[in-house]
Design a protein that fits this description.
The protein has about 350 residues and is of the alpha+beta class. The protein is built from 14 helices and ten strands. The chain has two domains: about 5-125 and about 325-335, NADH Oxidase (3-Layer(aba) Sandwich); about 140-320, 3-Layer(aba) Sandwich (NADH Oxidase). It starts with a helix and ends in a 9-residue tail after the last helix.
Amino acid sequence: MGSLEDYAAAVAATRARLSEHPGLKDLVRYATLAANGHNTQPWRFDLAKDRIAILPDFARRTPVVDPDDHHLFASLGCAGENLALSATARGRGGVLRFEPGGAGSLVFEFSGGPAERSALFEAIPKRQSTRADYDGRPVAVPDLEALAAAARVPGVDLVLATDRRQIERVLELVAAGNSAQIADPAFVRELKAWLRFNPREALQMGDGLFSAASGNPNLPTWLGGLMFDRVFRVATENDKYARQLRSSAGVAIFVSEQDDKDHWVRAGRACQRFALQATALGIKHAFINQPVEVAALRPQFASLVGTPGRRPDIVMRFGYGPTLPFSPRRPPEAVMTSVPEGVA
């Protein structure tokens, strides 16, 4: 199965501090530390001397849970935000924009300027989706204000739910969405395909949902699959989500103004900025996207959070909790298209 010690050492290398004068390859490495659905890492990076384009990798899409590629494009936004923050921190600032041509892509054009480090940049290698119970402590108002300020992206609204009654109503829709998903054999098969049950499997694949990153035991691959089939049940999962949500300080909901790829990317950028600011403040986060993944629940969820008629994009719980093993990432070479001569 491999050892957690070897796994931790390998993952630490992917999260090594960015050099003071990074090449484009190292900027790509930092970009890939972004949040993304099922840790599929559905992106390709096209490099040139004056820009980096982040392209969707449809070979890594999840058509059951994400049939219109909403989460895929939100993941591109998360990676783009990491890239922009990293380049700016190393004096290679520029402009990040969505290009609608073809399938759609996110382009960062370098323009230079002074190095501008930030708490969000410093948090990039430390950020993780912490799928565990939290300790129930509330987040102080100044920190909530800092989270909201960090997540301000044009075209995206952030709704923060910290009232316990509203969190319970969110939980009702999370449970409803979770029940609907588990009842779908195709959803279960797709999820299982992205599970990695031990350190060796996680390192070999470089992607997916590693069991230890969710606080679950390491198992041989064959046994992990059998145990998943036995224990992945609606009641068990709903109990887990109830416990985790009730131990959280609040829920963050990102709602974009329009339902198109450009705004899905913007929602991803806002989400990533929120997550990085949370990390900088010692606050953990994890995604609970069932109410937005099950289309039938979206109108009810939108009304609950005060945005009727719009499509909520991303749902995230946050609070204070443990640090778990980090998820794996593929090396930059695996996600870059051909690199032009002279581009480092």
